[in-house]
């Protein structure tokens, strides 16, 4: 009997591992396809040529797509974990959701951390150096020469970083223990290296999110159609049409030798056409879109911003007056043990909405900063270098989102390592033990 029980436990563990691997693969495949369509929408079409550079661009495109898919997975994991917790609490004995357990969620978090490290420290540097490489002088040109140069550059970069860490450690703490710890890269430095990147991402989020919260109203005002109150759109369109015709006549009458005036008039004519297009869009918009959608979206943004600021302020006050409110890795309920909100499923849904709103606001604030303004992708006119930079930036922001959400008190979910053992088996609805 003991041998049969041991075989049955191994079979359950095997089927659980296969099921989790299949689910992870399907989820990542969906994110990869969506990321591919997003990147190809902004990628410059002139780069699509059948030569050596085209092969390099396709490899860099694949690596960038992989990185963007990992970033999307890192963003979606926190809402997925929250909603999974509420589903397990609502239907604890349902046979059809037995695959949704703490073991799966814990595995997804581990994969997200592993792939984030892989993309940030290996794939994206390789894609950038591979895109800029030409092969060493004296060697035969080709893909192999460019790969060789890229690998050499990565090795030199790793040695440079290791040397900087070695010198910094010698200057700060010059003893034998600190020197010996530098050899323990795999168990000491590499696990904390991603934490340092997350810390920098949190600082970047704290800088970008307030800017994004203030910019969201302007961005939505540009995307939506504003109500026409005390405005005569027909008269404005008529005036802008006359101005367009006048600029066109002046442009046709100028000699081609006056290059500066021609370029200035063409730019002014383009601005007039853009303004005319916006006025025509406002005129053709329905009354519901003008008078209902715009005010509703603005009120919703105001409510979400107010709730976000209020929750952050309350959590900061709790951190100041209550030491036990500090976020700690050993505290908090596990998956399916307790609700994360006093309002149950409604509160969890509100937390998910706020998490997505903060992520979108941080991205908007990131592109609104003057230093990162040149990173804004343009449709069908974005180089691969900019795409790589955007993917790295989004990956850093997404990796810091769970840390910032936990620090600001938006969720209190805890994923313990024991979840894989304690939730391996669970009684089903008919009373038998089934693998989760």
What kind of assembly state do the chains in view correspond to?
single chain
Tell me the total number of β-strands.
2
What does the radius of gyration come to?
28 Å
Summed over residues and divided by their number, the pLDDT gives a mean of: 75
Question: What is the strand content?
Answer: under 5%
Helix content: over 70%
Q: Count of helical segments?
A: 12
What is the string of SSEs from the N terminus onward? Answer: HHHHHHHHHHHHEE
Q: Main sheet?
A: 2 strands, antiparallel
Low-confidence stretches: 416-436
Order of strands across the main sheet: 1-2
End-to-end gap: 22 Å
Structural class: mainly alpha
| Coarse shape | globular
Describe this structure in words.
It is a single chain. By secondary structure, the protein is mostly helical. The chain has 12 helices and 2 strands, in the order ααααααααααααββ.
Produce a short descriptive summary:
This protein has 12 helices and 2 strands; from the N terminus they run ααααααααααααββ. It has helices at 2-42, 52-90, 102-132, 143-172, 176-181, 185-223, 233-253, 259-284, 287-321, 345-368, 384-407, 419-422, and strands at residues 425-427, 433-435.
Which characteristics define this entry?
two-stranded antiparallel ribbon, mainly alpha, 436 residues, single chain, disordered C terminus
